[in-house]
Amino acid sequence: MRTTTVSERLAANRFELDEEESHIHVDQELCRSTGTGRAIIAVCPAGVYSERDGEILVDYAACLECGTCRAVAAPGALTWHYPRGGFGVTFREG
Amino acid sequence: MTDAVEPDFDVIVVGAGPAGSVTAYRLAQQGLSVVLIERGEAPGAKNLSGGVLYGRVLDQVFPGFADEAPVERRITRHVTTFLTADSAVSLDYSSQRLAEPVNAVTVLRARFDPWLASKAEEAGVFLMAGVRVDALLTEQGPDGAPRVVGVRAGDDELRARVVVAADGVNSFLARDLGLRRTEPTNHLAVGVKTVLRLPRTAIEDRFGLTGDQGAAHAVVGDCTLGIGGGGFLYTNAESLSLGVVLRLDDLVRSGHTAIEVFEHFLEHPGLAPYVRDAEVLEYGSHLVAEGGADMVGTVATHGLVVVGEAAGLTINSGLTVRGMDLAIGSAIAAADAIVEAVAAGDVTATGLAGYRRRLEESFVLQDMATYARAPKFLERTGMYGAYGELAADVFHGVFGLDTTPRRHLLAVARQALKRSPVTVRQLMSDGWAGVRAL
Known about the structure:
- The structure holds 2 protein chains of 2 kinds.
- Chain A is α+β, with helices and mostly antiparallel strands.
- Chain A has helices spanning 6-11, 28-34, 36-43, 68-72, and strands at residues 14-16, 24-26, 49-52, 55-58, 78-80, 88-90.
- In chain B, 54% of the residues are buried.
- In chain B, strands 1, 2, 7, 8, 9, 10, 16 and 17 form an 8-stranded mixed beta sheet that branches. In chain B, strands 5-4-12-13-14-11-15 form a 7-stranded mixed beta sheet. Chain B has a two-stranded antiparallel ribbon with strand order 3-6.
- Classes of the chains: A alpha+beta, B alpha/beta.
- At the A-B interface, α1, α3, α4 and β6 of A face α4, β11, α7, α8 and β15 of B.
């Protein structure tokens, strides 16, 4: 198999982007102080989270909706719910 | 009850996975009015699993389902492999007894779940897809305790006598009511999966299969860089499902990212012969409940029952990884208990208590109890690193004829053990724990 990057693999998926609202919100201060930033970057299989100059950036469009970030986040550091009906990833294999 | 608003349906089921669709189907079949709400644009659109369904319980609902449903292959071969950086030691079990009656099948959920939901629709269930349920509607009951009377989706409210939370491992509905707590991260794992396109003939050649036979490979060791969890490789009709499952506490501690571990697995030399020339069709992930019996909390309260993964019903015994069969088992128990409760006019926690009793009488909670020690056992670090190395060393001692004089197997094993960080004491202790846990 040819080596693939995460963005190449994600490109095989179908996503319906909700341009009006993100389903993920980060409390930067709490993310820093609780180590949540580091943890959500580590566990996210889609690479939704990254860090630049101490800020956690969120590429919510690529979210696979597994909820793993939510499971490792300190209380209040991350607000994560499912995208609105009709938006987000659509699995064609599953 | 006289001043209560008349419900729109007898039952609202939230989530059209196996748990939700089977619950809805059985309720409709027994004459109740049911709406099945799914946030994906179609059932299955948001659902992902490793891919093996132990199907005998589904056979009880839809006899001979494997002949009719869009299943991929019938699993007649189970391979468990300890992988090191340069060796693989496997336990390879194949049997025609697994084919007739069919024991397990691989499924792709975007194809399988719509079929299950269509069976529910044929039985009279009203399917509402593309709708995200935002919250439960609750009212204060006569005893002061909140009772669930319906759901809210955007500006819409729907009322029912009973709501079924079949909304998956993250179950926001069960959490809303405090039925599920925040799990410790050693009870959770992240599954990272890709589906690779591969011609039918290539699959049959590489996995030693003919016709609709299928193989399920479970891998532990170097595929996860020693992180608690494992890899899997399952054959579909014309694709492979493969991925890793990583325990969250160990993953965070390891300093690796889930993406790195997954890519390490994809590029592992042990995997290369199977995935050569395969093309990525899809990439997905799923949070997995691995806490076993410890995770199962309250499964029924006033006006609400929780089924499937939402109730924490998954088992990783080390050799088998199960979820969908437990989901279907819980669906059967839930539907029958709800029918009973509605008929008796008591949908309080007391009226719905038959659900838990049925779960306890069925294989669902009995298997959860049998494997209750498995999660703790599988946290033992030797399982993912040193044991694979040890086994590889023993076999190298047997097969690697390098012109040095041979020794008896016991001496080879003793020498391998001496080189290994594993102590005899640890081996005995883990061995005993394993026998008791699995």
